[in-house]
């Protein structure tokens, strides 16, 4: 049966949040027969009177704080200098490669599979355990949803729940897991001076260059540890895209009661703007078969908009009819409406526990940008599991791409949780042109009166 390679497992473990790493390690020890308790960010494991204290640390610093009487140090990534310092402090050193071996050979296979899938969001026996580049995931989602749906109106809030696998495994193997908030004394373990290569890797996100004082520079509302001011970032995004030529792709799929689904199974649209009053929208949205045919029509409905200054035209196509509408610009929305809509998406989804920030200052096909990954849904999504959001943010604050996925409780009685996917992406900034749609002559004719 396939099993993740050492490199794949290291990457997956590193991409977890601090809380997720603690839960995984605690679950692994629980599956081996220990009763685990998390106290002040430290795992306390007990079995037959024996007690172990496990500290999961990210050695991306020159000084690493660990509890005063720790027994086992679990680094997020291997560091020879940290291993040496740990051995000098008479601690056991368990890097990701050894965690992998414990998962593979030290616990029941079914429990290992459940723990792995709950933590990493993919089957243990998958052919590949390294997620594809985020850009591929986003484009794949857009293509997959391309023939489904759209409409511009909001929905209800839904999403998040805690990973319960650690608690379940603890109950099944070693009794209930307990959570404590007791404070524990700490000491500092001095690590040896790393090599230049290690020092560069340990430095963490360095920002998009430095300012006159030598401090790292980040997009508005961001710092080295993540998003410091979400409102400032969203405002910067609005300013960066408003009144620019641009193409925006948005796609979503999920159960009808999910956020922004508004009774639909899926929706998507592409908006091309050459100016605030010169834009075109091509959209699709799919309703359940039982939808009210008087208002939605069964299956997929296409909505097309075109504006070129003084007049807006709208076409609506369903399985039985095509209708047109013509209305003055004063009564319609200009292209800034879509900027506001995206800001609403960001305000809803771009929150939660941040797990990773990577910034690229040199020029590649994207140019300078910061990439962020968020796991662990915000409190406003109490029913979601497997929450993962990622974004690419340009120096101006423009969020050039964003995607989020999570699952909700079963709504169609198939015994499976419902997958929700949402994404958007900007392209052809400052170069987008808008042509008249082929249906425009018929729209003008049908609405001439």
Percentage of helical residues? 25-40%
- The DSSP helix count reads 11
Which spans of ≥5 residues are poorly predicted at pLDDT below 50? 131-205, 291-297
Q: What's the pLDDT, averaged over the residues?
A: 75
Class inferred from helices and paired strands: alpha+beta
Would you report the number of β strands? 21
Rg measurement, Å: 26 Å
Spatial order of strands in the largest sheet: 16-15-14-13-12-11-21-20-19-18-17
What separation lies between the terminal Cα atoms?
Answer: 69 Å
Portion in strands: 25-35%
Categorize the overall geometry: elongated
Oligomeric form:
single chain
Most strands sheet: 11 strands, antiparallel
Task: Report on the architecture of this protein.
With 449 residues, the chain is α+β, with helices and mostly antiparallel strands. The chain has a domain at 6-131. The protein has eleven helices and 21 strands. The longest helix has 14 residues, at 18-31. Mean pLDDT is 75; it is low at 131-205 and 291-297.
